[in-house]
Design brief:
heterodimer; A: 322 residues; alpha/beta; Rossmann fold; 2 domains; six-stranded parallel beta sheet; six-stranded mixed beta sheet; 12 strands; elongated; B: 327 residues; ABC transporter involved in vitamin B12 uptake, BtuC; two-stranded antiparallel sheet; 14 helices; 4% strand
Chain lengths: 322, 327
């Protein structure tokens, strides 16, 4: 046991040393001719949001003339790490991925760094002290999304308000940040209390099952705050089954603004949606070209997004792409 | 026999008791729009797919096999039906879609049976093929999207009520049928015989291969119906998440129920108890408010406890009086 620990400690120390030593090496491994190949390790297809995100990346890669190698990790970190390793072996020009969880990426990203392959994070960030492991992070500001949801509730709540929270996948950046931003804002109003909070894994059936249990264990629920539309849609089903009216008896706030969610918002079953824009393909390809060419890029690029009320949803719905 | 079911029964009772102490309202039942409404009803409704899959799994395990592909098959069933229904709201389309899905599931079961009984591949490997490939097939069918449908007839399967949830009525009906067919005829004994020794059974005149083939088809059809329930419960087909890890829950339900993974012996009542324990555990986590970070640990502790008390040594130690009573 002790031997194992010392070995592990040794490896950690070594990698820390090399990490310090190799800063500033700007060259990139280009694969053959002038075309850029991008290895993209997607989280999965867990929601409508994600599939819109995937489609945007695939379409924009084609439009930009970038050869895309795409893999689907089915929400598992080990699959994503495997995919990234295989991209390193294939010597792609740039690796992009949406980390399924925040931690545990240092080793594999260090491998990419040693192979001189730049890494772009999309949509979700990682939790690492070493910011040299990736060139830039393109994506939404989840804390800000949580704050926007909190702001709306603070502005619209009257009297004591009991909130139940449907969290995303435990450990995922959007789940942690959307919770944090929301709590930050509602702290200003002691009347608003989060009485129960549980993970619904970003899925409809998860949201429905958790909401069913909340409806039985909580005597009074005024607001549901779901970390994505799909869990909110599941919660709507559970609320209806309990003989209550979603959007009226129990108000619903969600994040994402996918088509099904917007439809429910327009129908008055959801009260407020904070947008999280999945169509970041174009920005990603522009960044990839710059990074491969060795140009400097800002280490944080935020996607443009807004919020929707019921009236705004009715107006925006016809032009919604996803 | 009775003794074997005692511990799962106690575990279930303990879980329910925990709920009663923490949230007394868990047991309150009322009628809501002609349907029974309450925490216990949720356990039954959400546990129905696991129970159904565990039933199929019980028979497969009794022949000394295992079927890892049930989750993927469930995803395919939901995907095929939802894609077939599309925007239609008619009951006919829903029924046709479900029929197509179940026939397809039976074909997938035949494939598993072919690999195991026909080619003699080890069950865990043979069904692993479909476990991984099946999800890909479901993704192809739905084109990677979550397919949302709006069909009242389809919604009944997973979210409908005839006082009790329709899903649990279906599962209990299948349980009754299986119990009747396998325990009132020789089929159950033949399945167990195949599990004990397929070759010896064949020499004794039992059609081992046909029986193995049949249990895999049955398991796949059960998985298909469960897939319909899961997808119908939320009126959407999610190729990625529908039935994800449900094969593990099903195997666990079978094992908790006292069926040996070595084959040759099975208990349907045990499987019923096992499935109920697993679903009660999940619902308990939500109701008593176990923090999401420790949910898996909580579940693991309960499962380990249940398995431990069932271990032969633990049972011998726990039944003080009956130790060493030769008959």
């Amino acid at each position: 046991m002790l031997k194992k620990i010392t070995t592990v400690a040794g490896v950690v120390l070594l990698s820390a040393l090399t990490a310090c030593g190799s800063g500033g090496g700007g060259g990139t491994a280009s694969s053959g001719s002038g075309t850029i190949t991008m290895g993209f390790a997607q989280v999965g297809a867990e929601s409508g949001w994600r599939t819109a995100n995937t489609k945007s990346i695939q379409d924009e890669a084609k439009a930009a003339g970038i050869e895309l190698k795409f893999s689907d990790a089915q929400q598992k970190q080990e699959n994503q790490i495997k995919a990234i390793r295989s991209y390193i072996q294939q010597k792609v020009s740039v690796i992009a991925f949406s980390p399924v969880v925040e931690t545990g990426w240092d080793t594999v990203l260090l491998e990419a760094k040693r192979a001189n392959i730049p890494v772009i994070l999309t949509d979700r960030s990682i939790d690492s002290d070493d910011t040299s492991l990736y060139k830039t992070f393109l994506g939404s500001d989840f804390v800000e999304e949580g704050r926007r949801a909190g702001d709306w509730l603070v502005a619209n709540a009257s009297g004591p308000t009991n909130v139940v929270e449907l969290q995303g996948t435990t450990g995922a950046a959007p789940a942690i940040d959307r919770k944090k931003g929301f709590e930050e804002k509602i702290a200003s109003k002691p009347d608003i209390k989060v009485v129960a909070s549980q993970t619904g894994d970003f899925t409809r059936s998860g949201g429905k099952q958790v909401m069913e249990a909340f409806l039985k264990s909580q005597p009074k629920i005024d607001v549901v705050y779901a970390h994505n539309d799909d869990m909110g849609l599941g919660a709507i089903e559970a609320i209806k089954a309990a003989g209550k009216v979603p959007g009226k008896d129990i108000k619903i706030i969600t994040v994402d603004a996918v088509k099904d969610g917007m439809q429910a918002l327009a129908n008055g079953e959801i009260n407020f949606i904070v947008e999280c824009n999945p169509l970041l393909g174009k920005q990603l390809m522009e960044l990839a070209k710059k990074v491969v060419a060795g140009e400097e890029v800002p280490n944080r690029v935020v996607t443009e997004e807004g919020t929707f009320t019921q009236e705004q949803a009715k107006a925006a719905l016809p032009q919604r792409q996803y | 026999m009775k003794n074997r079911l005692l511990w799962p029964l106690l575990a279930l009772a303990a879980l329910l008791l925990l709920n009663l102490i923490v949230t007394p309202s868990f047991f309150s039942l009322r009628m809501q729009d002609g349907a029974l409404y309450g925490g216990l009803v949720d356990v039954l409704k959400n546990g129905a797919p696991t129970l159904l899959i565990a039933l199929g799994m019980t028979l497969v395990i009794a022949t000394r096999g295992i079927d890892l592909s049930v989750g993927a098959v469930a995803a395919i069933a939901g995907a095929v039906t939802c894609v077939h229904i599309g925007t239609s709201g008619s009951a006919g389309t829903a029924i046709a879609g479900m029929a197509i899905a179940l026939v397809l599931c039976a074909v997938l079961g035949l494939w598993n049976g072919f690999l195991v009984a026909g080619l003699g591949i080890q069950p865990i490997i043979a069904t692993l093929v479909l476990m991984t490939a099946g999800r890909g097939v479901a993704m192809l069918v739905t084109e990677g999207q979550i397919v949302t449908v709006n069909n009242t007839a389809y919604k009944q399967v997973g979210a409908g009520f005839l006082v009790l949830p329709i899903s649990i009525l279906i599962s209990l009906l299948v349980l009754g049928l299986v119990a009747f067919v396998t325990r009132k005829t020789a089929l159950g004994m033949l399945i167990e015989a195949v599990g004990v020794n397929p070759e010896a059974s064949r020499l004794a005149g039992v059609r081992s291969r046909t029986i193995i083939w049949t249990v895999y088809v049955f398991a796949a059809v059960c998985a298909g119906i469960a897939g319909l329930m899961i997808s119908s419960n939320v009126s959407a087909a999610d190729a990625n998440n529908a039935g994800l890890w449900i094969e593990m829950d099903a195997i666990l339900a079978v094992v908790i129920g006292g069926t040996s993974l070595a084959g040759g012996r099975y208990s349907l009542t045990g499987t019923l108890l096992g499935a109920l324990i697993i679903q009660t555990l999940t619902t308990t986590v939500y109701t008593i408010g176990v923090a999401p970070e420790v949910t898996l640990v909580f579940k693991a502790v309960v499962v380990i406890a249940v398995c431990l008390v069932q271990a032969p040594k633990a049972r011998a130690a726990l039944s003080f009086r009956k130790v060493a009573v030769p008959s």
